Amino acid sequence: MNKNDHARSGYRAAATPIRTQRDTEYQVFAQVTHRLKAIDEADKSNFPQIAQAVFDNQRLWGILAEDLMEDGNGLPIELRAQIISLAEFVRRHSLAVLGGRASVSALIDINTAIMKGLRGDVEVAA
Question: How much is the pTM?
């Protein structure tokens, strides 16, 4: 490798975009939601796959709820309370999904709404 190639490779590494916390949160929600969509469209008899996707989603929401309860969380208290309520709904609905009494579609819808919020793609109600 000559000097020019070496210099270019150094700049290429620096050109890698920096991810924000919102970007990271979006990516995690996107991955989990993708798995939920896959089981929603797949054979419903594969319980281990369903259970793993639902568990991963519950774990994500549990971590989110814990973070929202921290004093250092910068979100407004009202928004934090609303998202914590969603986390509780996700927990209860996940149990219903695992018990065969509900589908994952509500979980997908909630995750998609959160992803839109993280991207700033929300419509304000009039």
Answer: 0.79
Torsion from C-alpha of 100, 106, 108, 111, nearest 10 degrees: -130
Q: Tell which residue, 85, 80, 60, has the closest CA to residue 70.
A: 80
- The radius of gyration of the chain from alpha carbons, rounded to an integer in Å, stands at 19
Does residue 112 contact residue 33 with C-beta atoms inside 8 Å?
Answer: yes
**Domain count along the chain:** 1
Contact 44, 103 (CB under 8 A): no
Rounded-to-integer distance, Cα 120 and Cα 118, Å: 6
Range(s) of the domain holding residue 60: 19-119
Which residue from 103, 123, 102 is spatially nearest to 113, judged by alpha carbons?
123
Is the confidence at residue 126, as pLDDT, over 60? no
